Amino acid sequence: MEQKDYLLREIEKIGDIIRAIRQKLFGGTDELAISVSNQAEALKEMMLSEAFIDLDEIFVMDATETDAYLAGQKGFNVENIELLAQTLADIGMTSAPPASFAMLEKALQLYEICNLRDRTYSFAREAQINRIREELQTGM
To answer: Which residues of 11-26 are buried (b: 16+ CB within 10 A; e: fewer)?
Structure first.
């Protein structure tokens, strides 16, 4: 029972961290958003310092390696991976190529990892996947 409580707290903590990062990047009720040109670097720095996730390392991994990497991180369940994918997609949609393509490709990969891990079909996730695929096709 104690182990389960610990895992649930770690999952909630990572989710809270990613939500806080999103609020800092895109603005919240009382703070201004970080400029579009600085969002990718700010995300990398915040993920490394707050969640101990090295996005530069993740960007060079394939789907299998990314899945294994995130599985080894405490607190990264499907919901938190999906939240990270959404963050990458939002930044990728507003960034300039080639960085935008890398972010969108990784977001797509993360959504596919979510689909493999989760046994529940998500219309919202599929809509995001289709949106990213359309963006990648029109941008190429």
So the answer is: beebbebbeebbebbb
pLDDT (tens digit per residue) in 99-123: 899 999 999 999 999 999 998 999 9
Long-range contact pairs involving 119-123 (C-beta distance under 8 Å, separation at least 24): none
What would the two tokens of residue 26 be? 């895109």
User: 109 burial class (0-12, 13-18, 19+ CB within 10 angstroms)?
Assistant: buried
pLDDT in tens, 80-90: 999 999 999 99
CB atoms within 10 A of CB 139: 13
- 98: cis peptide before it, omega within 30°? yes
Q: pTM for the whole thing?
A: 0.87
Domain extents in the chain: 2-139
Strand, helix or coil for residue 95: coil
CB 111 within 8 A of CB 132: yes
